[in-house]
């Protein structure tokens, strides 16, 4: 059994991680921390876990994480980088669901996240946890930087085109939409029901902190910097990401075959039949990314549609997928949930 600790178990990604891990046959939950809810039973805060989790939240200042084999950080940006080195030094592996170790250029990270990095020496070691790209590195890793929700959907959508070298990488466009849970469980005016319901808006157009992460990932596959216009939107739904991706085609290619061949062995990437239009509800509560590729009117523009659940493949599910790979378990163990409908 893998003895697991969770730092920050009260946010949406934290409770999603709990939902998945309590059903995992090879996991034993040891510690779940929360400064604000210390001493409260996990199932008191989250009745959905009643009968599944007997633990109480621990104060992170007092919790003994060294008893764990693996610790997940489901915390705000800037927390994991303060504690990871100490854990690694005593042999505990770490998966960070925040952004502390995703961007290799530390100065770039500090610019976008507005703080000084506390463990720059670990950034180079951290493996970016996108299994469809870094599976072999993940197997050997002790520190995983779990990808962001938008970056997962966007990169998986663009990767076959980028790797094949058949599109203009200087002028890529990612038009993306996310449910309100992507903003986290904290109270903010823009995610209040009266603000977000019956509404649709873009945000972060001048620059969003997921932009350098996506550029880094796509640039590594194209072996040159990419030009990307990335525009996120907030939609009046709880879960889900829909990424509509645009690229100009440079070479004649059977796009459907390209995508099917690229992802034929990927358990959580589902390439839909030609002409399909994936819906966010088709992945709700699951670790799947569903993709459809189009070439409107047979022109030179490729349009890729990529949908995920931002809390699962975009966060907690992908983190558990990485854990399975790290420990040599079947990659789908504990995370092959059928999507919820309706």
Automatic annotation (TrEMBL):
GO terms for cellular component: cytoplasm. Pathway: Amino-acid biosynthesis; L-arginine biosynthesis; N(2)-acetyl-L-ornithine from L-glutamate: step 3/4. InterPro entries: AGPR, AGPR_AS, AGPR_dimerisation_dom, AGPR_type-1, NAD(P)-bd_dom_sf, Semialdehyde_DH_NAD-bd. The keyword Zinc does not apply. Residues 3-141 form the Semialdehyde dehydrogenase NAD-binding domain. One of its GO terms (molecular function) is NADP+ binding. The active site is at residue 149. This is N-acetyl-gamma-glutamyl-phosphate reductase. One of its GO terms (biological process) is L-arginine biosynthetic process. Keywords: Amino-acid biosynthesis, Arginine biosynthesis, Cytoplasm, NADP, Oxidoreductase. It comes from the Bacteria. It catalyses: N-acetyl-L-glutamate 5-semialdehyde + phosphate + NADP(+) = N-acetyl-L-glutamyl 5-phosphate + NADPH + H(+). Catalyzes the NADPH-dependent reduction of N-acetyl-5-glutamyl phosphate to yield N-acetyl-L-glutamate 5-semialdehyde. It is an enzyme of class 1 (oxidoreductase).
């Amino acid at each position: 059994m893998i003895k697991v600790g969770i730092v920050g178990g009260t946010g949406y990604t934290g409770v999603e991680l709990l939902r998945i891990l309590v059903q995992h046959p090879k996991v034993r939950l040891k510690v779940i921390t929360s400064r604000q809810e210390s001493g409260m039973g996990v199932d008191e805060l989250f009745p959905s876990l009643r009968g599944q989790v007997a633990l109480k939240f621990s104060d992170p200042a007092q919790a003994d994480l060294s008893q764990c084999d693996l610790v997940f950080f489901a915390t705000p940006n800037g927390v994991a980088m303060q504690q990871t080195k100490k854990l690694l030094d005593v042999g505990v592996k770490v998966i960070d669901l925040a952004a502390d170790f995703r961007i290799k250029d530390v100065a770039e990270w500090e610019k976008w996240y507005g703080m000084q990095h506390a463990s720059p020496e670990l950034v180079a070691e951290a493996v970016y946890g996108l299994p469809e790209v870094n599976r072999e590195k993940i197997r050997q890793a002790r520190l995983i930087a779990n990808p962001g929700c938008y970056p997962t959907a966007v990169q998986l959508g663009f990767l076959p085109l980028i790797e094949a070298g058949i599109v203009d990488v200087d002028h890529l466009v990612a038009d993306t939409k996310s449910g309100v849970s992507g903003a986290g469980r904290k109270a903010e005016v823009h995610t209040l029901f009266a603000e977000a319901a019956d509404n649709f808006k873009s945000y972060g157009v001048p620059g969003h902190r997921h932009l350098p992460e996506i550029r880094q990932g796509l640039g590594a596959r194209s072996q040159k910097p990419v030009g990307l216009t990335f525009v996120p939107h907030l939609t009046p739904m709880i879960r889900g990401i829909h990424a509509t991706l645009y690229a100009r085609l440079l070479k004649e290619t059977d796009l459907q075959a390209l995508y099917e061949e690229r992802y034929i062995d990927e358990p959580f990437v589902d390439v839909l039949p030609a002409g399909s239009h994936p819906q966010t509800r088709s992945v709700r509560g699951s670790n799947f990314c569903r993709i459809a590729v189009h070439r409107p009117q047979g022109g030179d523009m490729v349009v890729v549609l990529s949908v995920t659940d931002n809390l699962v493949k975009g966060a907690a599910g992908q983190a558990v997928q990485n854990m399975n790979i790290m420990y040599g378990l079947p990659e789908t163990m504990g995370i092959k949930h059928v999507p919820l409908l309706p």
